[in-house]
Amino acid sequence: MIRITRKIEFSAAHHYHNPNFSAEENRRIFGKCNNPHGHGHNYVLEVTIAGEPDPATGMVLDLKELKEILQREVADRMDHRHLNYEVPELSGQIPTCENIAAVIWRLLEPKITQGKLDRVRLYESPDLFADCTAEPNGAGHARGRA
Amino acid sequence: MSRPLKLSLTRRYHFSASHRLHSAAFSEEENKRLYGKCSNPYGHGHNYVLEVTVTGAVDPETGMIANLGELDPFVEREVVEAFDHKYLNKDVAEFEKQVPTTENLCREAYRRLKDFPAARLERVRIEETSKNSFEIRGESSGLGQGA
């Protein structure tokens, strides 16, 4: 099995706020991420596909095709957007790295027809990232609404 | 059909420290042969990068596996403050009797972090330089699983 990884970048705004919490709880739990007008990041997304190379082309999946899928499914939705208000897939969720990675997995998985989606790694900054993979034992951890 | 998902969160921390690779169990000559310039008597230093990976359920109320407001001070207290700007051989008790290779540093960092209360410690990875890195995972650490 071979794993191939493609990277894209997108820039977006977000803020963390849960209407079930009081203003004070929001500030305590989310800190400066709770600032009402939001803030932004340059996100870096690494998407890994696993599979056997096609003997005729030598490719698991044409990177050009993967690049187009990432552009259409992720960049067109999220780049230069406010994740709280402009991305319906994240609506009702706190747009943390973990939740965004899970949403991206759900968007990409059905679109990958050659090879299998193996890992979505989303960097919010060079020092923070979330990994989303398929649960090896079938018992999912992700309880989000993705 | 959508598969159940597993999520993890990785945070990178930075510390700078000096060390000397030298074992009292070996002769001077053996130390020199085995550890080369890493055995120079006054030690040398690195800018280490510590990667800490935690896994677990994403809390639907916060969207988080672990709140960085809890993880950061825990890692800072348990590892970064203990190692940063220190001479590992002398300033960290655990390395008085074992060689502070980055393998051993990984095991020691894992041991110090495995009881993080808010999520399960999955992996500790340390970059000694930008060209070499070492990692340890819960199931193979020999140090028991995280909380």
SS element count, helices of chain B:
4
**Average pLDDT, all residues of chain B:** 94
Low-confidence region ranges of chain B: none
Instruction: Using a beta-carbon cutoff below 8 angstroms, give the protein chain pair with the largest interface and the number of residues from each chain.
Output: A-B, 40 and 27 residues
Task: Give the N-to-C terminal Cα separation of chain B.
Answer: 32 Å
What does the average pLDDT of chain A come to?
93
Main beta-sheet strand count, sense and barrel state of chain B: 5 strands, mixed
Give the count of helical stretches of chain A. Answer: 4
> How many β-strand runs of chain B?
5
Class derived from helix and strand content of chain B: alpha+beta
Q: How do the SSEs of chain A run, as a string of H and E? A: EHEHEHHEE
The percent of residues in helical segments of chain B reads 25-40%
* H and E string of chain B: EHEHEHHEE
Helical percentage of chain A: 25-40%
Largest beta sheet: strand ordering of chain B: 3-1-2-4-5
Major β-sheet annotation of chain A? 5 strands, mixed
- How many strands appear in the DSSP assignment of chain A? 5
Strand content of chain B: 25-35%
Shape summary of chain B: elongated
Decide which structural class fits the backbone of chain A.
Answer: alpha+beta
